[in-house]
Design brief:
Elements lengths: L1 H12 L2 E8 L5 E8 L11 E7 L7 E2 L8 E5 L5 E10 L3 E8 L7 E2 L4 E2 L30 E3 L6 E3 L5 E7 L5 E7 L6 H4 L2 E7 L5 E7 L4 E5 L5 E7 L7 E7 L9 E4 L5 E7 L5 E7 L2 E6 L4 E5 L3 E8 L5 E9 L2 E8 L7 E2 L13 E9 L6 E9 L11 E7 L18 H7 L3 E6 L7 H5 L9 H15 L3 E11 L1 H11 L12 E5 L5 H7 L6 H5 L24 H10 L8 E2 L1
Parallel strand pairs: 30-31, 30-32, 32-33, 33-34
Antiparallel strand pairs: 1-2, 2-3, 3-4, 5-6, 6-7, 7-8, 7-9, 10-11, 12-13, 13-14, 14-15, 16-17, 17-18, 18-19, 20-21, 21-22, 22-23, 24-25, 25-26, 26-27, 28-29, 29-31
Keywords: Hydrolase, Protease, Serine protease
Pfam family, one: PD40
Family: Belongs to the peptidase S9C family.
Length: 583
Amino acid sequence: MAKAHEHLILSLCNLEVPKTIRLSPDRSSIVYSTELTWGHRKGKHAVSTLWLASTGRADSSRQLTSGLFRDYAPAWSPDGKAVAFVSDRADAGAKWAIYLLPLQPGGEAYPITPAENTTDEEVQSASAGDGTPNVRAWGEDWRFARLRVVDVRTKRVRSAKLDRHVTGVCWSPDGTRIGFSSCLSPDIEEPFLTGTIISAIDVDLNSVKKLCHFPRIIVDLTWAADGNLYFCGGVPANKMCVGYGVYRTDPTTEFHQYEWAGFGVEDDSSRLIKGSSGEILVRVQHRLESRVCLLDGTVLYSRKEELEAFDAAMDTDGKFVLAVATSDVNHPVEVFTTFSSDGAMTRLSDHGREFAGRRFGTCNFLTCMSTDGQVELDALYLTPASFSVGDHHRPLPTAVLIHGGPNTRITNAFNTYYYMLAPYLLSLGFGILLPNYRGSSGRGQSFASYSIGGLGIHDYSDVIALTQCAIDRGYADKERLLVGGWSQGGFLANLCSVRNGLHDGGWRFQAVVSGASICDIDAMALTSDLGCTFEPELSRDGVIWNMDRDDTRNRAASALWAFKDAARRAHLENATVVPPMLI
């Protein structure tokens, strides 16, 4: 039995997960990259592998690069005869370059940019006893990302002279200009403090035109065939923990404005791509569904499964080919293609062959009302393969696993939670409850905004309500409950620990596992790398540098301030208080 568990753990850790998918210009082929879950590594450095497959041909995927280096971010040449990608093959983990791989037989990848050491940060230590202080000024050694253009034939590299940190680039449809987004500095909080500027520059890198200023971070800047630049950002634009939608800006106007183009009100956009004809396609979270949509909301693909990656190409007559990487509770992530929104999916890859024929369990979708009656809540309950449906089944020992974020969501997937925990726990016979509490993504601005000023209130009560739902439906054994979480989920697990049993359900969590979590939101404001931006938003500017000593408005978002009462209750019950296990 121990050998079987060890083999399963190793197989899960060794599973290659498709990440980036790119259709060839003629749509006949697909190049994609794979890596281990969460980019973990077997040796000293993380690796990534490129694969090539034929559109619509089952099991046609073949390995394109060795898998010994981190080969990632593949892109096709305009003629479809070569693939460009980023790699550290010159010196693993140290020297990076863009490589070009001709796809004809015998083609060898070669660098088109210099393979330079990108980890050239110097640390100088004072010699013992010389009295020289080892001081480094904050911001002194920032490494700005630069906008550079390389001529593939001559390998000549030109750099734009910009006193800003470039965060995204895209080509204009005619190839004469480059759109780019930038921030004042590479500091992680910069886009949340001073926002993002979207600009356009000519291909000679001489003339820069500012198009608009967006008050927060943006992703997936894309220049579409209609002439507009599109990107994803918060809804409303001046917040982070809200809905996520699509915006556009017109480079031909002089007004330096942006406007909302769609999504983020009742659902959330999570990725933009440009199709072969220059149209914009959007990956959308619609409650527990993953969708691929056009900007007008037309749905090309919809499943209650996590969509890891996608690419698409569309004709002017509406015909399209769609490539997706998706999975479910019993099948690891694979690459598929389809030619219609309701057509059959053709599986091109076989990265999960180790688990062929193995059944881990069943994904059950649960809904219930929040305890305050304000919203309907979603959750997944995963039952192991050994679970029998019917009047005589026994409730399961259950792990309640709370996602981080808070603005993300969980739906049916093989690696439903982090670090391949779900398939392993199912193999041990555990049931798994995965709550999407208020603040999660997939339901737009209003649902996500419950996090703002509501930490420790709405999210915590939703976890309790959904746990009660799983008990009432006969899935979870109320005498055998564990709760755990990572980051924001770990924070909620801490609250479940110190508030254990205070609800009226008549049950308690028997164990708590908290990973990478906070115990007090005020302390996080002073210690987090996003302390001066993320925390003020969640606390409605109620952060420690704005509050008087007797201001207790954030106590609901603190497990520390609840520990005294937890200890007192335990003493009265002649029990022992054990803080949650911190990872």
